[in-house]
Amino acid sequence: MKDLVKKACADIGINLSDSQAEKFEKYYKLLIEWNEKINLTRIVEPEEVAVKHFADSLALTKYFDIPENASLIDVGTGAGFPGIPLKIFREDIKLTLLDSLNKRLNFLDTVAEEIGIDVNTVHSRAEDAGKDVAQRESYDIAISRAVARLNTLCEYCIPLVKVGGSFIAMKAADYKEELKEAENAVKILGGEVVSVNEFNLEGAGERALIVINKKDNTSDKYPRAGKKIKNKPL
């Protein structure tokens, strides 16, 4: 895995150190081991994991400048993507991993301990975290990858971001319809779309990073209850 992840990242212009590559190798081994016990990922072949999980997560750093020591929350993190790869690459960031399933968080705590990174894990649904004073408007950056359609995702993520911060949605090539249907949600929640970055990830296809800056505080009305968010998107 060390050579595979180095090559996959080099192909998109990111150079990993030997130490970072070793962390990715340990992460991969734990991913495969735990995947036999709990459902973490359908992608298990080393070459595919290197590209579709590890390099794909780090591609964000080519298109968005994460400030030094930024606080970052990975919403619906699942098996830790993109949060853990970003923390391996940028040790300075203060990373919170949010997920609604405690078994996945146990896996992520184990990964963090085994590979030697400092992360905070939060067991919560995103809509509950957005109402929690300890989490609401507390982060410089919220990131989410393959969790929900953008109009729904905005209501999960934008309330967690400080005014002046950013929400980054990691999407596949068919994002344009989602972006259009999310215009109202972005505005209501205090955001503004500032960039859409399209790129091709060899072996994985077209990708897009949608960057939404937080311009105003989110109304206390949001996020709504989970069923309302899903059934009646903004």
Mean pLDDT: 94
Q: Going across the major beta sheet, what is the strand order?
A: 3-2-1-4-5-7-6
What percentage of residues falls in helices of 4 or more residues?
Answer: 40-55%
Distance between the termini: 42 Å
Main sheet: strands, sense, barrel: 7 strands, mixed
Sheet-strand content, in percent, reads 15-25%
Structural class: alpha/beta
Low-confidence stretches: none
Rounded to an integer, what's the Rg over CA atoms? 17 Å
Order of helices and strands: HHHHEHEHEHEHEHHEEH
Oligomer category: single chain
**What is the overall number of helices?**
11
How many extended strands? 7
What does the overall shape look like?
globular
Describe the secondary structure blueprint for this structure:
Layout: H1 2-10, H2 18-35, H3 46-58, H4 60-63, E1 71-75, H5 83-89, E2 94-99, H6 102-115, E3 119-123, H7 126-129, E4 139-145, H8 150-157, E5 161-172, H9 176-181, H10 183-188, E6 191-201, E7 205-214, H11 226-231
Parallel strand pairs: 1-2, 1-4, 2-3, 4-5
Antiparallel strand pairs: 5-7, 6-7
Task: Write up this protein.
The protein is an alpha/beta fold. Helices cover 41% and strands 24% of the residues. Helix 5 links the parallel strand 1 (71-75) and strand 2 (94-99). The N and C termini lie far apart (42 Å). The mean pLDDT is 94.
